[in-house]
């Protein structure tokens, strides 16, 4: 099977070379001075400017990350249109993109996968922290075809500068960040430095993040959950037990930078310990069922002996990355990246080890970028992955599995006179899973085609059609056992087929001197949508869920609008609005944990010494729920931040940031814990950020 894909890869390379050579004699288009300089490297190997994408994209840069609260990846991105967080306490969060999560959202580091087990379960933390990033790019929907079927819902690419690709200014550069927060008694310290030694650049970085149990404004269980159990709340808000986080990362990199490119290697160590709220309460609920909600003191003593559940995550990761400019010919440069990781996720019950998940392996990627000629640009590439997964312990519901993947892809884009253009891509890949319960192999074919038009300066209209195929994961195929994080007994199906999504997306960009906006309308039809559905049976007090396939439809929108109300010199006042909406349905009813609509309005001030913003965000309720899922009420939150540049230079900033200032009850509908562990109440953080 891999031989067939390898032959396909060779064919794609030959095709791209032929196309590039055919366009060699065409005159190159003049550079457009109005072109937005922000280039989205995740969208295509050759990079496309943000205002020319037929896809929904968001970028969070280092300036924004400095002022953002130190949180996990999902929580850090949750305010972006179309993005929510799995919000599994303060320790674990993955992005939910357009209502899709887990294996449907590909999380990358510099374009290469995490090689962890974070997609397996919502209580598994992503092995890369946002505090390490120089920039995070989020592609919503199946736009990043070059990354395979696991990007069927979207891609989150965490881009760091551990492997330097250019020399730092004056031979030395770096950053420092320190902050202290209330509401969870948190602090965060991070720093990075890049130093030149001849043609080499040495990079060192470190991050420390610590928080205690966070405060909540209400009783932990929702009113609906209490009513379901026939109980009443005892007391109000306070600290949500077992939500503390302690995270450390250390990294180092060395790059050689020459006239035609660079090559470098980096190593990183991540060590985290965090609590899992509600896990112990799950045992308590099962005892309630067994004893008809009898709150006897004997049971309480037994529960205390079990101890809280905490998770220890450790990963050692080695990365190799480089790029080389080619002299003429069909291709302008060759780019490669690869990573090896050894990951362990250990669940502790008190001081005792409950279950241990391990994942080790490597992933490599090679890209050939075509020489741009006559408005035609493109790239071809191959990608390979081998990962070994294992789980041992009471909740080892997925057997030991070896995963092997190989893929080949091409992406092409042609910009014509008159502002018109077309683009397309093709990827073929294989996925083989070899477990103790059997073997499965899949061949996936994905493709896209789109067209765009720039009717006026500053405007862009695009329409893209894509077909993306995703192979089932090890848990969807082979799971069998209790999975307390999802509060169920999960059973896989070895007969599952590929999940295929056919998507249509319309994109509108507009900008002038005072107004800029983006609108994305999308619809996706899933053939063989893999869903986890209750069977009606129970096993050891847990509801039994079976992975099954059905047809499903998702549709929705994302919108952003910014208007500069006033400006005078370096001072300005702007208003910024955002909205998102997604509706999911299937032949078996609504899928679980579909996020409700959200709208936001933010007022921003920018000046030579001061900057700040005030944001009001409204998240709707959700009553279109799956079987055994409870509805969620809507809520409104108030956020504000203020930054001072004492020297008038943005490289030094002192800041104050407040979240949920009205202390609102926030229950994120996409979270498995929404009815037993609400999101934090009021939190205020002060800090200092320095770049040099």
| SS elements, strand count | 35
Q: Please give the radius of gyration in angstroms.
A: 25 Å
Structural class by SSE content: mainly beta
What is the average of the pLDDT values?
90
Task: Please tally the helical runs, counting DSSP H or I stretches of 4 or more residues.
Answer: 7
Largest sheet: 22 strands, antiparallel, barrel
Give start-end ranges of low-pLDDT stretches: 1-37, 280-305
Strand portion, in percent?
A: over 45%
Helix content: under 10%
**N→C terminal distance:** 51 Å
Account of the protein in words:
The protein has 692 residues and is mainly β. The strands form 5 sheets. The protein has a 22-stranded antiparallel beta barrel.
What's the helix and strand layout?
Layout: H1 2-22, E1 39-40, E2 48-49, E3 56-61, H2 62-67, H3 73-77, E4 83-85, E5 95-97, E6 105-109, E7 112-113, E8 135-140, E9 154-159, E10 172-181, E11 186-197, E12 200-211, E13 215-216, H4 223-229, E14 238-239, E15 245-257, E16 261-275, H5 279-290, H6 297-306, E17 309-325, E18 331-349, E19 352-370, E20 376-393, E21 401-415, E22 420-435, E23 438-453, E24 459-470, H7 474-478, E25 480-483, E26 488-491, E27 499-511, E28 515-539, E29 542-568, E30 571-586, E31 598-606, E32 610-619, E33 635-644, E34 652-659, E35 683-691
Helix pairs in contact: 5-6
């Amino acid at each position: 099977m891999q031989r067939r894909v390898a032959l396909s890869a060779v064919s794609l390379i030959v095709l791209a070379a032929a196309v590039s050579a055919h366009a060699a004699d065409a005159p190159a288009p003049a550079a457009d001075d109005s072109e937005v300089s922000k280039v989205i490297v995740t969208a295509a190997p050759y990079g496309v400017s943000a205002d020319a994408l037929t896809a929904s994209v968001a970028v969070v840069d280092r300036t924004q990350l400095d002022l953002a609260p130190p949180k996990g990846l999902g929580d850090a991105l949750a305010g972006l249109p179309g993005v929510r967080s799995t919000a599994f306490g303060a320790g674990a969060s993955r992005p939910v993109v357009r209502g899709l999560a887990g294996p449907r959202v590909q999380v990358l580091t510099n374009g290469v996968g995490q090689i962890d087990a974070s997609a397996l379960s919502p209580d598994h933390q992503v092995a890369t922290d946002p505090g390490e990033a120089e920039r995070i790019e989020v592609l919503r929907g199946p736009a990043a075809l070059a990354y395979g079927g696991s990007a069927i819902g979207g891609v989150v690419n965490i881009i760091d500068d551990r492997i330097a690709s250019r020399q730092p200014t004056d031979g030395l550069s770096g950053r420092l960040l320190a902050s202290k927060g209330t509401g969870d008694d948190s602090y965060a310290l991070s720093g990075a430095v890049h130093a030149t030694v001849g043609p080499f650049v040495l990079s060192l970085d470190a991050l420390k993040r610590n928080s205690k149990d966070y405060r909540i404004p209400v009783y932990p269980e929702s009113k609906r959950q209490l009513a379901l159990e026939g109980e009443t709340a005892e007391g109000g808000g306070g600290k949500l037990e077992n939500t503390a986080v302690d995270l450390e990362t250390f990294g180092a990199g060395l790059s050689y930078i020459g006239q035609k490119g660079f090559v470098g290697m980096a190593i990183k160590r991540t060590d985290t310990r965090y609590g899992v709220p509600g896990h112990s309460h799950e045992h308590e609920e099962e005892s309630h069922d067994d004893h008809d909600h009898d709150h006897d003191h004997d049971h309480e003593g037994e529960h205390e002996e079990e101890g809280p559940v905490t998770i220890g995550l450790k990963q050692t990761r080695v990365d190799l990355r480089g790029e080389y400019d080619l002299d003429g010919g069909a291709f302008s440069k060759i780019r490669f990246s690869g990573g090896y990781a050894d990951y362990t996720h250990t669940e502790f019950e008190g001081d005792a080890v409950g279950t241990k998940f391990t994942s080790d392996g490597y992933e490599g990627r090679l890209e050939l970028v075509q020489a741009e000629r006559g408005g035609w640009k493109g790239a071809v590439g191959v990608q390979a992955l081998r990962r070994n997964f294992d789980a041992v312990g009471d909740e080892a519901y997925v057997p030991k599995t070896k995963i092997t993947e190989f893929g080949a892809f091409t992406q092409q884009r042609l910009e014509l006179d008159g502002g018109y253009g077309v683009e397309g891509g093709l990827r073929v890949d294989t996925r083989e899973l070899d477990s103790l319960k059997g073997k499965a192999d899949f061949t996936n074919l994905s493709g896209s085609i789109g067209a765009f038009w720039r009717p006026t300066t500053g405007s862009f209209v695009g329409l893209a059609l894509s077909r993306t195929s995703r192979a089932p994961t090890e848990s969807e195929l082979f799971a069998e056992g209790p999975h307390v994080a999802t509060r169920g007994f999960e059973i896989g199906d070895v007969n599952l087929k590929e999940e295929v999504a056919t998507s249509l997306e319309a994109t509108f960009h507009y900008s002038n001197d005072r107004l800029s906006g983006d609108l994305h309308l999308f619809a996706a039809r899933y053939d063989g949508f893999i869903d986890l559905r209750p069977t009606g049976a129970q096993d050891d007090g847990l509801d039994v869920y079976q992975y099954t396939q059905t047809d499903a439809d998702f549709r929705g929108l994302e919108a952003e609008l910014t208007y500069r109300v006033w400006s005078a010199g370096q001072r300005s006042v702007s208003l910024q609005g955002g909205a998102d909406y997604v509706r999911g349905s299937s032949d078996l009813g609504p899928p679980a944990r579909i996020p409700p609509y959200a709208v936001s309005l933010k007022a921003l001030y920018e000046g030579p010494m001061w900057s700040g913003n005030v944001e009001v965000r409204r998240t709707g309720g959700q009553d279109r729920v799956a079987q055994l899922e409870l509805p969620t009420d809507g809520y409104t939150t108030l956020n504000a931040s203020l930054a001072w540049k004492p020297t008038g230079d943005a490289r030094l900033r002192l800041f104050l940031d407040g979240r949920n200032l009205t202390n609102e009850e926030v229950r994120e509908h996409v979270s498995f814990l929404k009815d037993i562990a609400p999101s934090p109440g009021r939190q205020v953080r002060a800090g200092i950020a320095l770049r040099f």
